[in-house]
Amino acid sequence: MQKFTSFILLLVCTLVWFNPAFAEKQLPPAGGKAKDFILTETSTVSLENGLRIVFVPYGNTPKVTLRLVSKLGNYDDGDFDGIADLAYQLLTEGTKTQSALEIAQRAADMGGQVNTSVGSNSSYLQMDVLSEFVGDAANLLGDLVLNSQFQAEDLDRARNNFLRNQTVQRSQAQGQAAETFNKAVFGSHPYSVTFADEDKIKAIQADTVAQFIQTNLVAKRSVMYVSGKFDQSQAEAAIKNAFAKLPSGSDRLIASPSYQGAGKMIFVPRDNAPQSTIRFGLPVVDPSNDDYIGLQLMNTLLGGSFASRITSNIRENKGYTYSPSSTISTRVNSALWYETADITAESTAAALQEIINEITRLQNEATSDEELEGFKSYMSGIYVLQNSSRTGIINQLWFLETYGLPLAHLETYVQKINSINPTDISALAKKYLTLDSMTLVVVGDETSVKPQLEANKQLASLYH
Amino acid sequence: MISTRSAPKACHLAIGKTLLLTTLLMGSAILQGCKPNTSDSQLADTLADKMTEASSPVSYNVPVNYTTLANGLKVVISPDNTSPVAVIGVYYNIGFRIEPKDRTGFAHLFEHMMFQGSENLGKMEFINLVQKNGGILNGSTRFDFTNYFEIVPAHKLETMLWAEADRMRGLAITQENLTNQQGVVKNEVKVNVLNQPYGGFPWLDMPQYAFNNWYNAHNFYGDLADLDAATLEDVSAFFTQYYAPNNAVLVIVGDVEVEPTMAMVKTYFADIPSAPLAPQPDLTELRQEQEKRFNKFDKLAPKPAFAMAYKMPPRNTPEYFAMGIIDQLLVQGTDSLMYQELVKNKQITGDVGGGINYLLGNMFNYNGPMLWMSSFTHDAQVSQQDILSAVDGVVAQLSEMPIPQASIDRALVKLRSALFDEVDSFYGFGKVDLLASFALFDNDPARINGLEAQFKAVTPELIKATVKEYLRPSNRTILTVTPGEAPATSATEQGE
């Protein structure tokens, strides 16, 4: 009783201390007139072998990014899990004329280093250098792509490092949730592989890697982006010269997955974990579908931004979690919507219930115009940011390339966002976020969390 | 094949991915005990001036308009019309080193409270205001400052200035808000430390082992019990003590004009009263005379890990700039000596991370005792002795043998390129961070344009002398991670 009294007193005092006036609240100033945003104009040159060069003159900082992106990735691993990762690592480990150390030092002399990235569908080699070295960087990248040696001892070292990193990632609750979720949803499709199978990766030989690059890192599947401040004729001449001998190759088709996870709940035990790491979601349509932009807006409002409904609820209202987030994760011929969160263990079922409630509410009640307009403005602002950096613009252009979208997609994006109304959002939520098709993965303490899930009526009826 | 989570940064408010936030580099405070020796600073400046005269054209020139309002608020405006975007940053000169001793983690918890409501903006209204105007926002707590920023379409600058001024004027927070954010912060600690393999290693752990002064050496994220103990009175006392205009800098970068922007700043900030500031505690660290070694058992970690930290020379001395070059030589990039020795030659690890103010900022955004750190994971068959002899061999290359001019030139090119990236990073936020740090700690944001010259002034002899004094084994702390539960009888020190 005493405690209760002092609590009330403190509350009053504090409010008085902080906010002595209790006056009517001021409204924020609206700001000035919007400035024009003009998309950077790009130009494209094609080589005889089919390699395209896309020039993106952007900004005033004397730096330039060269990124050779190719349509090859873990999808193409085949029987050799992780071979794409090892191959890109070995592309930096020595050519016919340069050792790995010489490559690293030459890149550093230009103010950069050779970076690589491997994804499901595409991968890249990149250098980010001082502008005056645009030609030298093109030459170096050309040498790596055409003349790498793929030595067995470098492969052994790269494989060992890859396995060690993978072991670390696998020990993270978030890695375990992703692995379990992908396996459940994608069945036997290559997208189901989150971590490489150790035996398969051990079977990879140096000549398999060389063959993999020869077959897949080919001109017709690649684009060289040059973005930043640079001399275009110098860049063009150097790239043409460095990549003239890149084999043309041919494109490959990506099979659509047949989804398996609907209505499955999988519990991954992690003893005494103070939080439950959840992943809750289902397949939706990919960016080539007309509904995709609407889905992005729906996702941003539902869970994909700080002010979103799920985040407002389970973080800012309930304090169940620190970093909840919903995402649409896209790959060629595939997209998944899911909510992820690390939830304090004792609130796992309560938080899941709130997530379900927010989905249901969005499906059944149209948003207010004001709420939706706010999220549209937010997405327009994000769009400007996404197109306002050297590498951001490359990402945008490659996104179009990946999903076969025209450049006009970028030009009309904001207009399309603005044409969506509250009933469209509810309809999209109803059409795509069907609760009984959702897969739920929970990584957490079995003893304390599993009974919570079983006791929750809605979860029990969804996953009986 | 999958990157599930980037290295945790202490203390971000929010949701990395969806806000497009990837990396934030920040960190700093003004502290009596560890101000750089004035004569050394002057020497570095003089050397730098000489070099500027002698050498190449200026590589970049960031416009710096600097004013201090009558209430003590520092204001920096730096126009850049590359994109129609404005970045607004407010930095308060209070970092996580300085917090009450029975309230560990409070500076960071308080950062969360700055989003919970002010006179004219209730809970969630600040966040909604930024988003519905097309912007993103975040805040973070670092060694020597706490910052808040928005990146918005340039014509929304005035809206954001009004909102930042509103919360600088005062907060309106309820017990419910506080309880809610105690829950959020405890979840932040769980996701980044308690349920995370290598959680807190080395960024949160190392200062606790390497430093001796409590202010530098306590748990900045906070004990869960201390977080629970925080009261509304603590919140209001902290606000009064540190969140005054005369303890802050406001930086505006982007597609803005100086005069109208300054007029708006005056409209919203000029009448916020200044406040007497609390005296700063002494942060001094004594010269370390003996190597320290610690091990931490981690039942979630599948592989051993190694970290080492050397105490840095005082900020802005010639040796400090020499350490900037040494950092490039030793650990930045695949051409670096440590990478070549540990990854390629000895095959101990796959990558070597490291730097000054590592994982919590960069070499510019702090203002007190600091560490140069490096860390990596490795396989169980590699012994600590293997690692140390490899490291000592690398350091000996710098201290015992002549340093080729080509290596120094390469380090300078890497630094120049990294500075360009920093200035550009995150739509201009990197520039905000440098300008804010130099205004807050040096009262001189124009330093941003003189950095390159200060690095160029470093001689091979100075590098050698700096290696000898600061990369001594007796100036370092080693912290290892051993997978598994701590043996019951072990007397080994534990982390959290």
Give a structural overview.
- The complex is a heterodimer of chains A (464) and B (496).
- Chain A has 464 residues and is an alpha+beta fold.
- Chain A folds into two domains: 43-243, Cytochrome Bc1 Complex, Chain A, domain 1 (2-Layer Sandwich); 265-462, Metalloenzyme, LuxS/M16 peptidase-like (Cytochrome Bc1 Complex, Chain A, domain 1, 2-Layer Sandwich).
- In chain A, 47% of the residues lie in helices and 17% in strands.
- Chain A contains 18 helices and eleven strands.
- In chain A, a hairpin with a 5-residue loop joins strand 1 and strand 2 (52-57).
- In chain A, helix 2 crosses helix 8, helix 11 runs antiparallel to helix 12 and helix 12 (348-364) crosses helix 16 (422-432).
- Chain B is an alpha+beta fold.
- Chain B folds into two domains: 17-43 and 64-269, Metalloenzyme, LuxS/M16 peptidase-like (Cytochrome Bc1 Complex, Chain A, domain 1); 292-483, Cytochrome Bc1 Complex, Chain A, domain 1 (2-Layer Sandwich).
- Chain B has 17 helices and eleven strands.
- Chain B has helices at 38-54, 106-113, 125-132, 157-169, 175-194, 206-210, 214-217, 224-229, 232-242, 258-269, 318-331, 337-345, 384-400, 405-424, 429-442, 451-456, 460-470; strands at 65-68, 74-79, 85-92, 136-141, 146-153, 248-254, 292-298, 305-311, 353-356, 371-377, 476-483.
- In chain B, strands 1-2-6-3-5-4 form a six-stranded mixed sheet, sandwiched between helices.
- In chain B, a hairpin with a 4-residue loop joins strand 4 (136-141) and strand 5 (146-153).
- In chain B, helix 2 (106-113) packs across helix 5, helix 4 runs parallel beside helix 10 (258-269) and helix 13 runs antiparallel to helix 17 (460-470).
- Chain B is globular, with a radius of gyration of 22 Å.
- The chains are: A alpha+beta (464), B alpha+beta (496).
- The interface between A and B is large, with 111 and 103 residues.
